[in-house]
Structure formats: C-alpha cells, structure tokens
Amino acid sequence: EVIESDAAIRLGVLEQLARQGADPDKILELAGSDFQPARGEETPRWQRLMLDGLVKRGDVCSAYKAWTRLAGMQAAAAPNTIYDPDFRGLPGPAPFNWRFEQTSDGFAEVSRSTPGLFAEYAARQSVSLGGQLIRLAPGRYSLGFQAEGQAEGEDGGLAWTISCHPSGRQIGEVPITGVEYTPKTISGSFTVPASRCPAQWLRLVG
To answer: Which of 38, 111, 151, 165 lies in disulfide reach of 116, CB 3.0 to 4.6 Å?
Structure first.
C-alpha cells in the first residue's frame, strides 16, 4: 500500500531491488503499469540497473524478456537483428536499444533533425562511443550503412565493431573510411560462432 501511494518510495525500492539482483518479474510487478517513460524522457535508473545487472551476470535471456515488457509491443515484434537501425527513436531502454556516450575524445548522438547518427572523434585514444546488445543466431551476416562527412584517413577513424558477450571476443569490424560529404555506402561481413557467443555487442568505436 505504501509503495502504491508514494512514487518516491516506490522508485527507491525498485532501485534497491535492481541493485540486489532481485527477480525481474517481481520488480516489474511492483513497478505497476506506468513503467514506460514518455518519448524523450530519460530511462528510469531502476530499469538501467536491472537490465545492466542481468546482462553483466550473463542472464541475457531474462534481460531481453524484461526489456520487451518495458519497451512495449512494438519492440517485442521487432526482428531479432539490430533494433531501430534507422535511429528513429523507437521505444525501449538500453542495452537492447541504442545508448551512446559523450567523452573528451569524441561523442555520438542520434540526429534531432533527420533519422540518423551524428558522431565526432578527435583521434586521441581508443574509445567506445556506444552501441547496443544484439542477439544473433550462429551464422554469417552483413552490416551495411550510408555515411557522409569527413573521415579520410585509414587510421584513427571510426568503425563499427561486433564482439561476443560475455567473452569480449571481436568477430567483426567495419571501418568508416574514405568518407566525404557525398553519401557513401559502406558494408562488411562477419560470422557469429556456434559456441560461446549467445549475444553480441555492436559498438561504434574510435
């Protein structure tokens, strides 16, 4: 009754349960039906703690099940590849949706004007600018996209990388090089191994 009547107490309890690694079904039950933030609002901290904790402990299946409930029917019906590949701002928190970082060496952010991703990298040191966790079955895949801007050099530029979770083994890389201010199609391929790769991190790195 106290949790239902006091939103601040409810958020505190949800955060503590998420930190302790409580059953995600119990956490969502206590959260009630209003756990989906409006578009543009920041993801509640308890959701990040719960999902990131499950992924860190290796329970990707439970994390994805909880994520589909948080993200809604649109996410649950999405193909099991890259979620929101056009950067349109589809609902759902990280890690199964995009999350990007701003660092002193570079940043990436979803464009506010047209669907797309804007990134800038100062080439001081290697850094991850963000990405998302995907769940691909074993097999061979291709990754393709259009890019424009200024990325002339072969070294010190941006690239999309794919690595296995939880081992961290990199299984693919698509460098973003030779880019000018005319859209250019860039593509590459990678193979998801049959073992020790139940999920994969797709990251934009400098």
So the answer is: 111
Name the token pair of 164: 């296995």
Burial degree of 173 (CB within 10 A; 0-12, 13-18, 19+): middle
DSSP alpha helices (H): ranges in the chain?
Answer: 2-5, 7-19, 24-31, 45-56, 60-71, 73-76
Distance CA 58, CA 55 (A): 5
| Cβ proximity of 141 and 190 under 8 Å | yes
Residue with tokens 């019906």: 77
pTM (two decimals): 0.91
> Tens-of-pLDDT digits for all 206 residues of the chain?
888 888 899 999 999 999 999 999 999 999 886 666 656 568 899 999 999 999 999 999 999 999 999 988 777 777 779 999 999 988 899 999 999 988 888 899 998 888 899 999 887 788 999 999 999 999 999 999 999 998 766 555 899 999 999 999 999 999 998 888 899 999 999 999 999 999 999 999 99
Q: How far is CA 57 from CA 21, 51, 53, in A?
A: 9, 10, 6
